[in-house]
Input
Amino acid sequence: MQTLKSYNKSLLVLLLTFLLFLDACGLYKKTDSRKIPTNANERIKKNMEEGKGFRLGNLGKNKGGDFQFASSNPLWRATLDKLNFAPLNNVDYAGGIIVTDWFSEGNSNEQIKITIRFLTNEIRSDALDVIIHKKVCNSQNNCQINKIENNLNSEIRFAILKKAAQIKNEDLVRKKEDNPTDYTLPKSF
Output
């Protein structure tokens, strides 16, 4: 019984000491309740503006994500449409790159690989970087790979941009038909 009383006394002394230090550190400050907003969201906003507290973004809010699908990007769709003749090696929408596998026409010992890098999602002349590599192999399978720069790069870029513009216009017409009051089409339609 005696030890229980001494235990309670030491616990009380420890608690009082802790509260004294807590008050000395400035963690507990007296406030005027008239100056504190009663609405929780307003209190949070005020505390965030004053640099107090923290937020974990939109954690706990039941909102859908912001998704960007390749099927909604006309430039991406046009590129896949124009490269449908070649086997694809790497297709990464998030990374903005499409790489074909090595291919050739016929039994030639020359093969090419086309790499398309997306620099922006907008349909404009500098939106794509077209890189073409040519591989030439001799009869002993010794191959030499070179990057080629010729009119084919520009022709592929132009064909993709032209197809992307067509796809975008078709999408606008389809949206106009589905929701006639939501979209205004350019005067050329």
